[in-house]
Design brief:
Blueprint lengths: L2 H14 L3 H22 L5 H22 L22 H24 L4 H30 L45 E3 L5 E3 L5
Antiparallel strand pairs: 1-2
Helix pairs in contact: 1-2, 1-4, 2-3, 2-4, 3-5, 4-5
Length: 209
């Protein structure tokens, strides 16, 4: 399956996720998909793209490791999208969509960190935000490299219709403290996005992008 389609599916799934474990699982899937896209780019004949692709693959793998401990049993929602990647298609729209996905994952993890009720969840989210920010940085450099080449670099024929997405801004990282360690006061907290879920499971409401 083409990368752009998988990325769009991942963005929709992340927006629809409500329970915290599901959100974290979707975040990890996004990291694995980033790793797969980077691995594909690492095989490019263009040395600059290949170098950045390798960096992106390593950054995506690191992000997946950061989030791995919070995915119960290592189960991937939807069977693992990264394994269904068969072609990258048009690089400009693919990297633009990937940048948006990474930004949305980072913002969602910030929301979870704000409402975290355990230190484990808090630090998982913070580590994930940092890792996603690294992925976004490499993606931005890749987009600049593609732009310098006139967007003519293709890795597969018959890709998705070109679309131009604006270069995403860096993730906004809110410095918080873990639960019970001098974090914001009740008045300073961001709105509580958690609502009671069944069997004690947390549920998170994330605005759709």
């Amino acid at each position: 399956m083409e990368a752009l389609r998988l990325i769009r599916t991942a963005r929709h799934a992340l927006a629809e996720a409500r329970h915290v474990p599901d959100v974290l699982a979707e975040a990890r899937q996004a990291a694995l998909l980033t790793e797969a896209v980077g691995a594909g780019l690492a095989e490019s004949e263009d040395e600059e793209l290949a170098g950045f692709g390798q960096q992106l693959s390593e950054a995506g793998a690191h992000a997946a490791v950061c989030l791995d401990r919070s995915v119960a049993g290592g189960i991937l929602v939807g069977g693992g999208r990264a394994g269904r990647l068969t072609e990258l298609g048009e690089l400009a729209p693919t990297l633009g969509a990937l940048d948006e996905l990474l930004g949305e994952v980072g913002e969602t993890l910030v929301v979870l960190a704000c409402g975290a009720d355990t230190e484990s969840l808090y630090w998982t989210c913070i580590d994930g935000v940092d890792a996603m920010s690294e992925c976004k940085d490499v993606t931005a450099r890749l987009r600049e490299a593609v732009d310098r080449g006139g967007g003519a670099e293709h890795t597969a024929l018959g890709g998705a219709e070109p679309e131009r997405a604006g270069h995403g801004s860096p993730l906004l990282v809110v410095r918080l403290g873990p639960p019970g360690e001098g974090g914001p006061t009740e008045e300073e907290w961001a709105p509580d996005y958690r609502v009671p879920g069944a069997a004690g499971a947390s549920e998170v409401s994330v605005p759709a992008g």
